[in-house]
Design goal:
Length: 93
């Protein structure tokens, strides 16, 4: 199953004429295309599906959604080993 997952923008850059961001999904960091949300800024949250930021989201909603997905085991399904490693790293802190 593919999920649209909320993530926080850490960094934005232009790559080959495309606005791209590094996005943190609760410990898993991925590259995301910002062409559908060209005014998204560092620190903001967005719903991301198949590598594209689709909709801006407030921080509280993003955190609640990530917590719920985590509780349901959906993030492990979506991110696999990367999510498990991020979860373990968070436990060690």
């Amino acid at each position: 199953m593919c999920l649209a997952v909320p993530g926080r923008v850490l960094e934005i850059e232009e790559r080959d004429g495309t606005r791209m961001a590094t996005v943190d999904f609760g410990g898993v960091v991925k590259d995301v295309c910002l062409e559908y949300l060209p005014d998204l800024q560092v620190g903001e949250y967005a719903i991301v599906h198949v590598g594209f930021a689709l909709q801006r989201l407030d921080e509280e909603s993003a955190r609640r959604t990530l917590d719920l997905f985590g509780d349901l085991g959906l993030l492990e399904e979506e991110f696999g080993d990367a999510w498990e490693q991020a979860a373990k790293a968070g436990e060690e802190r």
